[in-house]
Structures are given as C-alpha cells and as structure tokens.
Amino acid sequence: MTRNRNNGNNNEEPTSEFIKPEEVLKTDRFTYFSTVPSRGFSQLTRAKRNGRWWMLKGLKEQYREDAVYQAFLQKEYEITSQLQHPMVVSVLSLEDVEGLGPCIVMEWIKGLTLKEWLAEGKHSRKQRRHVADMLTEALAYVHSRQTQHRDLKPSNIMLTQDGQHLKLIDFGLSDTDSHAILKAPAGTEGYTAPEGPSDIYSLGCVLRELRLGGASGFVIRKCCAQQSRRYTDVATVRRDLHRSWQWPLRILLTIALIIVMTALYLTKTDQTNAIINFVDKKVKAICVEHWDTNGDGELSRAEAAAVTELSDAFTNNKEITSFDELRYFTGLTDLYQWQWGYDGCSFNGCNALRSITIPANVTMLYGESFGSCTGLEKISVDPANTKYESPAGCNAIIEKATNRLVVGCETTHIPDGITTIGNNAFGGRWGMRQMDIPETVTTIEDKAFVWCVKLTNITLPASVKTIGNQAFGRCDTLISVRCYMETPPTITDSVFTNRTNATLYVPAGTTAAYKAADYWKEFKAIKEF
To answer: What are the helix (H) ranges across 54-124?
Structure first.
C-alpha cells in the first residue's frame, strides 16, 4: 500500500526541499507509544492503531529539521514502498505523527534477529538451510526491483521464534539506479567487500555464519571472492546452494557408475593387457628405471605390486604431475619411509604434483609424506583400503577409526564428523586462501596449515579445544581469524606467527578473556561479532 499524493497544486511552496506537505498523511490515531533502541539518526517507535501494532521509523529530535536527514527518510520510503514480498518488511505509508514528525509506518515484526537466533546455538542444519533459502529468495526479489540493500548482516534479518519465516529489514542505506542523490557510504565492517558495499559479498558472509555444511563452502567462497570472480546475481547463488545440498546423492550415484564402468574396464584389461598405462611419462620413466625387472621398457601390474618401498625415487622431483597409477603398487604399506641418508617422506618437495591415488594396503601415511606439494589439487585412496578413506566430495585422506584428516590439498572440503586436522595435513599448500572448518573439529595438530602463505581468512568453530604448535605458522597473509570459542584455548607463540597483522573476531562478551590470554592478546585488533 502506497501513500496518497496530491500533485495538482504546483504553485504551493514546499516547506522542505525534499518532503512536500501534501506527501505526508496526517494522523493522531496512534496510541501506546514505546521507543525501540536504535543507532544512528533513526528513531524507532512501536505504536498501536486500530488494534494492530506498527513500527514507526522517524528521525531523532536533533535531526528532524535537517533537510539531508529528511531526504534519507524520504528515499528509504520511496524504495521500500515499492517492495512487495512476504519476506521483505511491509511499508504502509509516510505519515506525520504528533511528537515524532514524519515517520515511515511499517509492519511490526515479532521475533528475533538472525544474530540472536544463531546465538541460541540450538538449530539444526536443516533449519539453517531453510533460513538461507528464504534469505536468498528475498534478496533475489529485492535485486529484481533494481534495489541494493547495501547493509546486509544478521542484525538486519528478522526471524520468527521457530525460524520458519524471514523478513529482510532496515533499508536505510539502500539505493536504486533511479535515485541520483544521497549516494552515501554504506555497509558494516566484517560484511562489506574490499571495494565497497556489495550485497552478494555480504550474503556470503551471512551464509558462512549459518554453517550450511555439505559443499556450500564453494558457493560461499565465490560470493566472497575478488570482484571479478564473484557471483553477479543472487539467483545463481541460490541455484548453486541447492545443488551443493544435493551433491552427496549425485556424487554417490556418479561414483557408483564410475566404479561399475571401471570394474568392467579393468576386468577386460586384465584379460588382454597387464601393462600399466601411465598418464605422466616422467613418472613412467622413473618407475621403469627402478622396477622394470624383465627389461621390456614397461611396468606391469605384477611388477608394481612387487614394490615394497619407494625410498627416494620421487622425493623432491619438480617435474612429475600425476601419479594415480600408484594404486597398482599394492605391496606398499608405508608412504613415510624416512631413513638416514636421504630426505624421505615419499613425495616431499614434489611441488608440481597435482594428482595421486594411495594404494589399498598402505597403513602408514602422514602429512609429511606430501610436505611442500604446493600444487596438490586431487588426492584419494583406493576404496579397498581398510584404514584410510577419501569420502566423495572432500578431496582428502581420512583415517577411519579416528576421524582424523591426514592429508588435504587446496581444494579440500573438510566433511562433517572430522574431529582432528592432522600434523602437516595442509602444510605448504601455497594456493589455499580460505578454509571452512566444520563444527565437529576439536583438535588442530602441529603445523596443520604451516606455510599456507596465501591463507587470508580462517574460522575456528566453538568445538575447537586444542591448537598445536605452528598450526598456522608462516601464514604471512592471514588478516582475519574468527573464533567461536567462548574460552580461548591455550596456545604457544608459534601458532599464529602473523597475529600482529591480523584481526581477531570473538563472540560477544569474550573480549576481556582473549585480551588476557597469552598470545591471543597480541593480535592487531580484537573485535566482537
């Protein structure tokens, strides 16, 4: 419902450059006024009229006669009055209320802000995904009306007590292409893109706090990526979120099909040709040099299965890129194999290695086995391995009995259920910029992310109790650490070596505890979220 306008009298002088007398309805029918706490120049008042509660948004007394602030109010009304959606706050009119001056009359919403709702910490992933679905629908509609919210954050999102209904509120800093005035700075620290207000960047920040699980991290990272690589529309974000929530079934079906087709292929191959067809010719040359026992210039599966140790055949090799054929080396049980006289850790220093598959019988595997493999993009384990697994979509090696992530790479998605990130699991992954740690992780071991030199943001869930030495050592570009732990864990000097250049975000009411804790207190700044 829009306000009444009378534009027939063009000779009447306006009392303000922005708000004309005929554009403001007169009313004295509001009763039971109560002030709602607010910041900035806006004054919020709850009042009753005709048996219904309303929210009145006006100007604080010291700003009411200021034409600029009157214009802000007028602009907000013009923008919000043309938004008609069940998930966007509904605006009735712009009225002159006795004692309050011009006010936007909007629906009163009973519930919690998303910030308060999340703080309860009792909501299921299904509920959080429902909130994300409603939020993206609401924002997509707002954008379809050529409107940018410009201050999207949890405190500007309202939910009913049960979280089943969402309302996007506070369009005080919003803007449209059709408005040529009041192009003011906007946004809130922690939710604003480096180049300035961006609803999609802010949406990514809010989605991260919702902890949606699954493969949602990929969508969130693209929302918060550099401007040139960021999503351009909310509809695509929403589509990709839905797909990320459906990925387990799709991937399982795909894997099942791949396993069947591979089994058929391998069966046929075993019958006709037992020679390994290496993708990387440099890997083949090394294998033939060391283990071609019959001298035919090839390596058969039988010859590969007879190998019991790799020694330093591949250590510090800067040329090999792919070794998925390692799965045929079924005689291997140990991929650490450190010995005096050579720099062990089978693939240590292979910085061009992109892809590898661990054999079925390996029972000793460590992060150091792939230390300084800076380009590692894909790692998996043979499905027949009884100690380790690489669940669909995670791109990492997990120790089954302990739920410990042993080795990961730049594209790893840490699945829910993981309790420990192992020693040197991501050591030397130079291309990693961000990692989402699930809320089941309790321990981050020594050097887990050491030398991740491009890692800029890390979020530590409330479940984390232990952080080992050099866990984030030499992460020299780390600028933001978001901690959800109410009590700061004990750490050493080497955990965050770049802490004096980074900002630490902590839960509300915990600043004093972190400022009193050794080494946590040395962060460049400590802020509450």
So the answer is: 67-80, 114-119
d(CA 202, CA 194): 11
Q: From its phi and psi, is residue 147 left (phi > 0), alpha (psi between -120 and 50) or beta?
A: beta
Tell me the residue type at 451: W
Average pLDDT for runs of 10 along the chain of length 529: 38 40 60 89 92 93 91 92 93 92 93 92 91 95 92 92 86 80 74 91 94 87 93 93 79 83 68 78 96 93 92 91 95 70 68 94 89 89 96 92 94 93 91 89 95 92 96 93 94 92 95 95 93
Q: Of 327, 321, 441, 336, which Cα lies nearest the Cα of 378?
A: 321
212: its two tokens: 């949606």
Q: What whole-number distance in Å separates Cα of residue 415 and Cα of residue 409?
A: 14
Kindly list the domain boundaries of the chain, sorted by start residue.
21-107, 112-246, 298-528
Domain 112-246 class, CATH top level = mainly alpha
Summarised one tens digit per residue, pLDDT across range 264-298 is 776 655 543 589 999 999 999 999 999 999 999 99
CA distance 526 to 151: 22
Indicate the fold that domain 21-107 takes in CATH. Phosphorylase Kinase; domain 1 (3.30.200)
Task: Measure Cα distances from 10 to 2, 22, 96, 102 in Å.
Answer: 21, 11, 21, 22
